[in-house]
Amino acid sequence: GNSVTQMEGPVTLSEEAFLTINCTYTATGYPSLFWYVQYPGEGLQLLLKATKADDKGSNKGFEATYRKETTSFHLEKGSVQVSDSAVYFCALSALSGAGSYQLTFGKGTKLSVIP
Amino acid sequence: GAVVSQHPSWVICKSGTSVKIECRSLDFQATTMFWYRQFPKQSLMLMATSNEGSKATYEQGVEKDKFLINHASLTLSTLTVTSAHPEDSSFYICSARASLNQPQHFGDGTRLSIL
């Protein structure tokens, strides 16, 4: 079946530090890959996505590249801010065993950025 | 951008009460809606998928009679937790998608607390 594995948190960084959150996946076929962000007490917001190999998704200074050879979609940001503190979920969309497209989420990585 | 509205955002009620949560797509027609449950510090667990006008498809282990889902129109789906008990306390999040090749958009979630 489809699965997503992302690095366990929590991750604590100082403001302006470099961020990497690792994400790898297993899936049948050719999935689309996503990063979602969840701020405290809120639902999920789509941060970025990539739909095919070598695509790079980017938004708000965050980037992730779809690497088919390593089945990875690592999230990076060059300089984090306190406002980036949130839980980040890696996800894939692919055909499920039931024959429909569903999102499969990783367990989430909590990021805390301190001034 | 696409907006999904979920209501109520927080509900506290006594054990044995039935609780209805609404999920509306405000600026697009959602052919498919999803209901997730999220436990503290954990990822989202898909409960069921519903297509407008059809019966919902429940994931393994989710009680159909306990969690009633109705998707009567292209902009509204409801989740009713029947005879709720303390173990049903959780954060419930809905998601909506216009079509297969469109991303899922998430509501802000409903925190359900059963006393």
Explain what the structure shows.
The complex is a heterodimer of chains A (115) and B (115). With 115 residues, chain A is an all-beta fold. Chain A is built from no helices and twelve strands. Chain A has strands at residues 3-6, 11-14, 19-21, 23-26, 32-38, 44-50, 56-59, 62-65, 75-77, 86-95, 101-105, 109-114. In chain A, the strands form three sheets. In chain A, strands 2, 5, 6, 10, 11 and 12 form a six-stranded mixed β-sheet that branches. A four-stranded antiparallel β-sheet of chain A has the order 3-9-8-7, with no helix packed on it. Chain A has a two-stranded antiparallel ribbon with strand order 1-4. Chain B has strands at residues 4-7, 10-13, 19-25, 32-38, 44-51, 57-58, 67-73, 76-81, 90-97, 105-106, 110-114. The mean pLDDT of chain B is 91. Classes of the chains: A mainly beta (115), B mainly beta (115). The interface between A and B is medium-sized, with 21 and 21 residues.
Provide a short characterization of the protein structure.
Chain A has 115 residues and is mainly β. Chain A contains no helices and twelve strands.
Secondary-structure blueprint of this entry?
The complex is a heterodimer of chains A (115) and B (115).
Chain A: E1 3-6, E2 11-14, E3 19-21, E4 23-26, E5 32-38, E6 44-50, E7 56-59, E8 62-65, E9 75-77, E10 86-95, E11 101-105, E12 109-114
Parallel strand pairs in A: 2-12
Antiparallel strand pairs in A: 1-4, 3-9, 5-6, 5-10, 7-8, 8-9, 10-11, 10-12
Chain B: E1 4-7, E2 10-13, E3 19-25, E4 32-38, E5 44-51, E6 57-58, E7 67-73, E8 76-81, E9 90-97, E10 105-106, E11 110-114
Parallel strand pairs in B: 2-11
Antiparallel strand pairs in B: 1-3, 3-8, 4-5, 4-9, 5-6, 7-8, 9-10, 9-11
Quick tags:
heterodimer, A: 115 residues, mainly beta, 6-stranded mixed sheet, 4-stranded antiparallel sheet, 12 strands, 53% strand, globular, B: 115 residues, 7-stranded mixed sheet, 11 strands
Work out the helicity level of chain A.
under 10%
Unreliable spans of chain A are none
Please provide the count of β strands of chain B.
11
Strand content of chain A: over 45%
Number of strands of chain A: 12
**What oligomeric state do these chains adopt?**
heterodimer
Helix count of chain A equals 0
Distance between the termini of chain A: 41 Å
Strand fraction of chain B equals: over 45%
Coarse structural class of chain A: mainly beta
Report on the biggest sheet of chain B: 7 strands, mixed
Fraction of helical residues of chain B: under 10%
| Helix-strand string of chain A | EEEEEEEEEEEE
Order of helices and strands of chain B: EEEEEEEEEEE
